[in-house]
Write a structure and sequence with these properties.
By secondary structure, this protein is an alpha/beta fold.
């Protein structure tokens, strides 16, 4: 057998071994995916809790107008989402387009909240085309909800109560807030634990 033929056989054996290894790893990833519980938005213990009535704040919007957090929602709206963002937060910049699409799909009233110089917020609005969206700029609302890290979201239901809240950095985290609102569980983790307990 020539050296070229032997090297080709060896090469095919290596390719076959790599293919088997990739298939085995794919199977293990699938098993791990089933065993790991979904992770929702991380909800801090500070500030208004799930079920609490939101603080009666009337907030001035950039560009004029007022948003009242306790005002009734439109009949076709599934909630009011406060999304705390900043131009200096890289995750916020990634999340803003996702939040816009999410709010449209879920029929949620989206209110952006920031606490920065007006020029900085106006640049953020221009960059992401948020001129048609509610944007509040000021420290009062962040203090009222004890927001310490960004991006942070608070979902308010039609009774002006906190339905869900937490740190968010993906669409899945935003969706977990809606799941928390619909199920009545404060977080995905509580929901999974309750389901597991019910099966026993």
């Amino acid at each position: 057998m020539s050296l070229v033929a032997a090297s080709q056989i060896l090469l095919w054996l290596v390719i076959l071994a790599l293919t088997l290894a990739v298939l085995a790893l794919a199977r293990q990833i699938g098993v791990l995916h089933q065993r790991i519980a979904p992770i929702g938005a991380l909800s801090p213990a500070r500030g208004p809790q799930i079920g609490d009535t939101v603080p009666p704040l009337s907030l001035r919007l950039i560009g004029g107008g007022i948003v009242d957090l306790t005002a009734p929602l439109a009949s076709d709206t599934n909630g009011r989402l406060l999304l705390f963002v900043s131009a200096s937060c890289p995750i916020c910049k990634t999340l803003i387009p996702i939040a816009l699409d999410f709010a449209k799909t879920e029929r949620i009233e989206l209110v952006f909240v920031g606490d920065a110089p007006a020029s900085e917020q106006e640049a953020l609005i221009k960059r992401f085309g948020l001129s048609g969206h509610a944007f509040v700029n000021g420290p009062e609302i962040g203090m009222a909800f004890s927001v310490g890290q960004l991006p942070f979201a608070v979902l308010i239901n039609d009774e002006a109560k906190v339905a869900a809240k937490g740190l968010v950095n993906s669409r899945e985290h935003l969706e977990s807030l809606v799941v928390a609102k619909e199920t009545g569980f404060p977080s995905i983790q509580n929901y999974v634990a309750a389901k597991a307990g019910a099966r026993r």
